[in-house]
């Protein structure tokens, strides 16, 4: 489906982003689609070649969370979660006192491995998304392993997790579904569905073209999932879409996501509305740098606001060569 003239005009703004730690957006930040600000690369979060744990020399799917005032004796004000993709994977943690970095590696990574005695043994675990669950006063970790199953683990300190349960699998999607992974969960009310949490994730099937799926939950543990994609790859002119993240602005809800998983690609933005009934594809949200560290590809963004400045922390570089990068509005 071709983009409308309005979508193409919005796309030419190229860059943009938003929040994720609960702070409001400055009304003057109007550079990107739908009024989201323009993000520019600042630095990589750390030198991945100097990490103690990085068995495959590639990292994906960052998730940044503010922990100061939420947990006792944090290592820093912010915890940054990430993982290698390829086996053995492993959920990793670094920490810092500013969203601008640098971040320090937790010395005992991985904090969650591909083997959890009594629960699972898989080839790899990856794609960490951590939610501060205000109801439980816990950090809830959603992660995949294998790509057919998304799991939940819970923690009081953001380091030591207790396994909870499977929350999503291919068997909960239409017949022929082959992947349900790269999930992020957000506190978002859907009164019509008696839900207080929303999940967005990547879904694949026998056509091998990835879409964005979604689901809703009253408690963040037990989920109902739509049987049709939230965002269909073909409707935005991409072979694959993934790495979705919810954002809010103008009294509405948006999804930011990356295109073509393995090759280069932009971040796109779609307005879904607060009740997820809209499908207004607004074009390009952010273009990758041609040079390092992006080398034509950015993906899986996570967002935060510190002292009124918005930040985007994202996966930069080729799919299996990625680093974790920081951009500032």
UniProtKB/TrEMBL annotation:
This is Secreted protein. Gene3D superfamilies: Glycosyl hydrolase domain, family 43. The keyword DNA damage does not apply. Keywords: Signal. It comes from Amycolatopsis antarctica. The keyword Signal applies. InterPro entries: Glyco_hydro_beta-prop_sf, TAT_signal. PROSITE patterns: TAT. Residues 1-29 form the signal peptide.
